[in-house]
Amino acid sequence: MHKDSDSFICCLLVLKLKPEETCETCGGGSVNNETKLPEVLVSCRDCGRSGHPTCFELSPNMVTSSKKFGWQCFECKSCTVCGKADNDDKLLFCDDCDRGFHCYCLTPALDAPPKGDWSCKPCKTKFSKKADKSAVKC
């Protein structure tokens, strides 16, 4: 029985990761049904939820980063450093890559989420013309 339950769990994990083939917002596939333009879907690396970057309002930087790091939908978002999704009131989202970071997992740690836009250090370096030396290291 233990062997079968392991197979069942393994099978569920494989099914969970299969990306959806249509956008959950507009219902389109390789063509965005709202813009009528071809657009590649992004898919959550954890649950497989898919959508067009324009439908999910993802910036070009977020799309670029999703190819390197994978993308997580809002429901699956977790901290890039510790991997946990708890304490969501302390979970920051980078405005460039959309990855999550707990305030207390950053180096140096932050007491509270900053007001306004925030970018993690790799994104400050990659996407800013002039990297801000005050960026927090991830």
Automatic annotation (TrEMBL):
Transmembrane segments: none
Biological processes annotated in GO: nervous system development
Record GO terms (molecular function): zinc ion binding
Keywords: Metal-binding, Nucleus, Repeat, Transcription, Transcription regulation, Zinc, Zinc-finger
Residues annotated as domain PHD-type: 20-79, 76-126
GO cellular component annotations of the record: nBAF complex
Family matches, as SUPFAM superfamilies: FYVE/PHD zinc finger
First-listed, main subcellular location of the protein, grouped into a coarse class: nucleus
Compartment(s) where it occurs, according to its Swiss-Prot or TrEMBL record: Nucleus
Annotated coiled-coil segments of the chain: none
Gene3D superfamilies linked: Zinc/RING finger domain, C3HC4 (zinc finger)
InterPro entries, alphabetized: Zinc_finger_PHD-type_CS, Znf_FYVE_PHD, Znf_PHD, Znf_PHD-finger, Znf_RING/FYVE/PHD
Official protein name in the record: C2H2-type domain-containing protein
Taxonomic lineage: Eukaryota, Metazoa, Ecdysozoa, Nematoda, Chromadorea
